[in-house]
Amino acid sequence: MKQFLKYIISISISTIALLYLCDFIYTQVYINSNPRNKLQYILNTKNESFDIIFIGSSRVANHIDTKLFDSLSNKKTINLGVEGAGLNDNLLQLKLLIANNNISNVFLQIDSNFEYDKPSNIAISEAMPFLNYNNIINTHIKKYFNNFEKLEYIPFYRYAINDPKIGFREMFFSVANKKPRTNPSIGFTPKFGNKLPLIESSLPKTIKLKNIILDEITDICRKNKIQLTLYISPYCSKTKNMRYIEKLITKVPNLIDLSKGYDDKLFFNCGHLNNQGAKIFTTNLYNATKNKIKS
Amino acid sequence: MLFNSIDFAVFLPIVFFLYWFVTNKNLKLQNFLIVGSSYLFYGWWDWRFLSLILFSTIVDYSVGLLLSKEKKKKKRIVLLWTSIVINLGFLGFFKYYNFFLDNFVTAFSFFGSEIKESSLNIILPVGISFYTFQTLSYTIDVYKRKLEPTKDFIAFSSFVSFFPQLVAGPIERASNLLPQFYKKRIFDNSKAVDGLYLIIWGLFKKIVIADSCAIYTNEIFSKYESMNSLSLLIGAIYFAFQIYGDFSGYSDIAIGTSKLFGIDLKRNFAFPYFSRDIAEFWRRWHISLSTWFRDYLYIPLGGSKVSKLLSFRNIFIIFLVSGFWHGANWTFIIWGILNALYFIPLFLTNRNRNNLDIVSKGKIIPSFYELISMITTFFLVIIGWIFFRADTVSIAIDYIKKLFSFNFENGLQYLSIERYTPELMILILCFVIVEWNSRENEHPFFGKWLNFKLILTLIGIITLGVYSNVTDFIYFQF
Prior knowledge:
The complex is a heterodimer.
Chain A lengths: L1 H31 L5 H7 L4 E7 L2 H4 L4 H8 L3 E3 L7 H14 L1 E8 L11 H4 L10 H10 L3 H6 L3 H4 L2 H4 L1 H8 L36 H12 L3 E6 L10 H9 L4 E2 L9 E3 L2 E2 L1 H15 L6
Parallel strand pairs in A: 1-2, 1-3, 3-4, 4-5
Antiparallel strand pairs in A: 6-7
Helix pairs in contact in A: 4-14, 5-12
Chain B lengths: L5 H17 L4 H20 L3 H20 L3 H38 L17 H16 L9 H9 L1 H4 L7 H4 L11 H34 L6 H32 L17 H7 L2 H12 L9 H19 L3 H19 L19 H22 L3 H11 L17 H17 L12 H15 L14
Helix pairs in contact in B: 1-2, 2-6, 3-4, 3-5, 3-6, 4-5, 9-10, 9-17, 9-18, 10-15, 10-16, 12-13, 13-14, 14-15, 15-16
């Protein structure tokens, strides 16, 4: 028995040591590698001046043709939309950006993301490697995650539960310095083609009273003298409960409504425009907002 | 309680400590600890269904004792059928009530009569198919005088509820497991270390192989209509590895955990995907269930010692029942029939016992003929798995039709799950190579480089495991 207990203790110690070692290796790789996602790009960006930044979900990443907007407005533009990101994740992006950079205009896409004020696991996982290296990230995660203690103190836990985004594959590609599919310094990720017939999508039937995260974003922009432009991207004709948008406009009076009037052929799927649709939408958005853009 | 949970990681060391350091001097107390911890283990899922296990235990314990006293054949038969009816009655009610009701309603409406359906919202008690078959085997063995009935209720309860194998097997025979609860267990270091290796390898199979494959399988099967033939083939292969990793991983952890307590369980899987024909596959897949059906159904029906026609019937029956055992759905029944159709040609040509040994024993690489045989068998198996995995028979047929449409447009299709097919293929290939090299043993931890293999497996579990969406073991639903 003594022999077995010794063996099991040695295996347990080895496992714990491996957890610490893997945690250390992953963290160092993500901290020191070239940015492969938009959050890493933001953290690596210091003392830059951005005229226009777009933040939001995939309905920003897929819809805003950065180079086109840049050429139309003649202003330095970046698309920081992240698939699956909610307003809370956009808030973190904004906090990190303004900590070390100058920003004149923020374009924020609002839709049914108004219903959520919690961070999305998909988007926030990109911040996990920097948990102990960045105070803004640490404070943000501490405020919004119930399992903060586990994330902070259990070695490798943050990588294990976020394995689709920051697991072995991503770590391996970071080590190999593989170029990401999307250049994070441009950020536009167009979708190609369209799936007809489009599968119906649905907006919420009811709307929540207020979104405290949106209020916080508005406050930050006001305090930092950043022009905040709120808009809504298009949906296909098969979208149900479009009355939600009317309700949303009553909650967010400055919202620029560009949700309708797009041919279904311009959609990749019901909530996302394709490459061709993105170009038209980018131009329309520019035309609708050009007088509001701060120099 | 799941084997791959924090709860179990806390539970197991506590029970281990109490077993070997507190109750080790008193056999009764040690068995009592097994029963108590097993009930806690099961009750963690749903304590209400503990009453079913307790009732089943009391019934079969009592029937066993009565059988030992009863000399008259007729009364003995009544006792046997009492146990069978009660045990299968519970199983039938919880597992098949709604299935039969739905099918009766459909059948009646087909002939023009409408009957009112009153289906019940029945929760299937975890592991009921496993412990029911285990207790039944005890009563049948006692009835056939192959086994002396036990008078020790605690030992019998330990046999019925032993937590490592309670919810998903292996389905143990009383003749193997029960006597182990009669005698004092002495700690055996090599057995415990072997158990530890099996637990680690079982966790690897479950967390790394099965759960990774599950993500892809779910994605492909849910969107099979938009998938090309290549993706559908890959989906079926992934499901084959998902169910193998899941179920054999569970069995490895169960057998390994039992070894920690000095108890030996039967082997349940013996590298089934290296089988050279379907008959060999069924000797290597879910061995405890296959042998149960052989001993308690096939042989009593006459087995192969009757006319060809009756043997043919017997084979059909066991595959049909085996399919039905897995669940109340026509997909499982078709899966059983399909396997019978695979098996019968071998049986009719007396080739069903051609491959009894380990493939390419002592060799590194199989012969060309062996390789082709294994690939053909694997392909037949995965066609069967499509029925097993699909929600309905029509979906399975549609899936197979699309698979054989040979549409390879777009090559490997993108799956919107933040994971990528080539990496999983490499992982599965590595897994197959490791399993191939271990096929003369139970796990890969033997010979040279043992510690290196162990560390590599632990690193694999840590870095390649799926922790973002932890899933139940598939066989819990059976």
